[in-house]
Amino acid sequence: MALQTSSLAISAFSVHSEGKKSNGFSAIESSFSFLGVPLSDHRIAALKMKKKIAVRAQTTTAVTTPTPSISNSPNEKKTLRKGNVIITGASSGLGLATAKSLAETGKWNVVMACRDFLKAERAAKSVGMSKENYTVMHLDLASLESVRQFIDAFRRSEMPLDSLVCNAAVYYPNAKTPSFTADGFELSVGVNHLGHFYMSRLLLDDMVKSDYPSKRLVIVGSITGNTNTLAGNVPPKANLGDLRGLSGGLSGLGSTAMIDGGEYWGAKAYKDSKVCNMLTMQEFHRRYHEETGITFSSLYPGCIATTGLFREHIPLFRTLFPPFQKYITKGFVSEEEAGRRLAQVVSDRSLTKSGVYWSWNSTSASFQNELSEEASDAEKAKKVWELSDKLVGLA
Ligand SMILES: NC(=O)c1ccc[n+]([C@@H]2O[C@H](COP(=O)([O-])OP(=O)(O)OC[C@H]3O[C@@H](n4cnc5c(N)ncnc54)[C@H](OP(=O)(O)O)[C@@H]3O)[C@@H](O)[C@H]2O)c1
Q1: CA separation for the pair 150, 137 (Å, rounded)
Q2: What is the DSSP annotation of 194-209?
Q3: Burial (0-12, 13-18, 19+ Cβ within 10 Å), 215
Q4: N or C: which end of the chain has fewer CB within 10 A?
């Protein structure tokens, strides 16, 4: 049984054929998005952003709003302050590698938002991050109260918020019964989606107030939530159904713990949570991009088979998965490379287009990927947003 589960799970993460090849987007398109937009124009826009944001749904697809970035001109470079970026789950894996990648440029103060303060401090030291480039702050996404406390602490620090990366995640592929957050939500969706949803909704105002020229909210997605890929077609497939479980609160009491109302299955709960992440990014884009100029993005960083994400898997899986990805599927990406990819989505001037799900091809060139039908369903995104708002008490 264990082996069966292992091989199923290996296949679930094994095939990395993305929906679309590189379209060559980068240098040319991005140059245009940065040319002809004087910084002063953007500062005017930043002032406008300070007014209260009206929540409104739009139905446009991804569009680029010209967003000024760090200029290459030596004069402008001098005037640009260090950016502040919050990265959740920066104590290991992708989050840590991204924190390192951004910190070592000397252009970012990385706020490592982590549930284990000491582990995060040690992790930062272990990868050689210099103290002046990071701050560790406590955050447990399995508790809405902890999210509020984190935001209070962040605001007391009086740092402007320039970018937010929703990266933390849990994955329970072998769990037979669900676990729950402090607020009673099934843990995978509670941490990966609802905790981040609540946090980003509250922190949007802080980002609006920032005068940083290129502000970004990034929500990490996954190939496994996209059924337009081979990997996304390995059972159990992501499927939010008619959202009856989400509507019922995912508490397992009087409603099921699964978004679609079905039987609990840990691997599916993770994939469903990733669909919510990708839908949330697009709904943010539709509601707020035009008005705020903030770039909303998601990404699939590649299969980082060595991270702690697989810690709940059986030992055999953890042993076989990395070489399987490296030598058989060739979908393997190192933590360092994945960190550089996510860092690009945070800071690269060629990735300012909002509403995009980024992926990388075999030569590590970024391209705008296509999401599955469900993960790009605007009507579903709106419903997930509204139900999530109710669950976290923002409706
Ligand atoms: N690994 C892959 O192949 C892969 C592929 C596609 C997408 N992703 C995505 O990449 C992201 C990072 O995953 P990873 O592979 O780097 O896994 P990871 O090494 O396990 O990192 C997950 C991070 O989330 C943190 N975390 C878990 N529960 C939390 C909570 N309640 N509150 C705050 N932080 C919490 C963990 O903290 P602790 O250190 O305290 O445990 C850890 O820092 C996830 O969004 C995942 O879906 C990964």
Answers
A1: 7
A2: IIHHHHHHHHHHHHHH
A3: buried
A4: N
- What is the mean predicted confidence (pLDDT) over 29-43? 30
- Over residues 28-34, mean pLDDT: 28
In contact, 18 and 302? CB cutoff 8 Å: no
**Which of 197, 307, 333 to mutate to test ligand 1, by most ligand atoms within 8 A of the CB atom?**
307
Distance separating alpha carbons of residues 280 and 217, to the nearest angstrom: 11
Pocket perturbation via mutation, ligand 1, pick of 144, 147, 273, 304 by most ligand atoms within 8 A of CB: 304
Pocket of ligand 1 (CB under 6 A): 88-89, 91-95, 114-116, 119, 139-142, 167-170, 191, 220, 222, 300-301, 303-305, 307-309
| CA end-to-end distance (rounded Å), the chain | 44
* pLDDT at residue 6 greater than cutoff 70: no
pLDDT tens profile 151-205:
999 999 999 999 999 999 999 999 999 999 999 999 999 999 999 999 999 999 9
**CA 360/CA 365 separation, integer angstroms:** 5
CA distances from 181 to 145, 192, 300, 319, 360 (A): 11, 11, 26, 30, 34
Distances from the Cα of 88 to the Cα of 147, 152, 326, angstroms? 11, 16, 27
The mean pLDDT value for 26-43 works out to 30
Residue 171 Cα, ligand 1 centroid: separation in angstroms?
Answer: 8
- Residue for token pair 């691997």: 267
Q: Is 166 strand, coil or helix?
A: strand
Contact in structure between 169 and 192 (CB atoms under 8 Å): yes
DSSP label at residue 344: H
Residue 379 C-alpha to ligand 1 middle, in angstroms?
28
Strands annotated E in 272-380: 295-299, 356-360, 366-369
Tell how far the Cα of 90 is from the centroid of ligand 1, in angstroms.
8
CA 16 to chain centre: 19
Q: What are phi and psi of 359, to 5 degrees?
A: -140, 175
User: Where does 83-392 sit in CATH, by number?
Assistant: 3.40.50.720
User: What is the 326 CA–ligand 1 centroid distance (Å)?
Assistant: 21
